[in-house]
Amino acid sequence: MMKLFALCVMVGLGSMSFASTDAVAKVQQKDWVKLGSRVVNMQADHDEIMVTVKDGFFTKVRLKIMKAPIHLKNINIIFGNGTNKNVVFNKKFAAGSFTRVIDLTGNKRIIKKVKLNYKSVPVGKGKAVVTLFGRR
């Protein structure tokens, strides 16, 4: 009887940890601000997402790939003061996936634009939509 009680308690605590993990993920998702999107032209191999100064300062960025897969070679983040940060991925991203989180050096930074370099992935119809998110 005691073993059954201990098992019930452990199972109950385990499900509580999953619930709290889901809640933390939802809160973290709300911390991200959409900075812009781009329907990538699969005929070319590069595009830009423009960001306005009014969007503010950010410490981290990430991209979400939607509607179609894309092979992202690298991105070049251009800051408000003219400096830049190049980030290499060289990886295929499926529709619905996110890139890793990119830390922006030097405290909070204003982002002017993000240049995307990619290869098209021939899969059916449709163009990929790349959305840039920033975190304050």
Describe the structure.
The protein has 136 residues and is α+β, with helices and mostly antiparallel strands. The chain folds into two domains: 1-30; 33-135, C-terminal carbohydrate-binding module (Jelly Rolls, Sandwich), CATH 2.60.120. It is built from one helix and nine strands. It has one helix at residues 2-30; strands spanning 32-39, 46-50, 57-58, 60-66, 70-79, 84-93, 102-103, 109-119, 129-135. The strands form two sheets. Strands 2, 3, 5, 6 and 8 form a five-stranded antiparallel beta sheet that branches. The chain has a four-stranded antiparallel beta sheet with strand order 1-9-4-7. Strand 5 and strand 6 form a beta hairpin. The protein starts with a helix and ends with a strand. The model is unreliable at 1-27 (pLDDT under 50).
- Spell the H/E element sequence: HEEEEEEEEE
Q: Can you identify the CATH superfamily of the largest domain?
A: C-terminal carbohydrate-binding module
Cα-to-Cα separation, first versus last residue = 52 Å
- What fraction of residues sit in β-strands? over 45%
Structural class: alpha+beta
Cα-atom Rg, whole angstroms? Answer: 20 Å
Q: How many structural domains in the coordinates? A: 2
Annotation field: number of helices: 1
Shape: globular
How is the CATH topology of the largest domain named?
Jelly Rolls
Biggest beta sheet attributes: 5 strands, antiparallel
Q: Briefly, what CATH class of the largest domain?
A: Mainly Beta
Poorly predicted spans? 1-27
Report the helical percentage.
Answer: 10-25%
* Strand element count: 9
Averaged pLDDT = 80
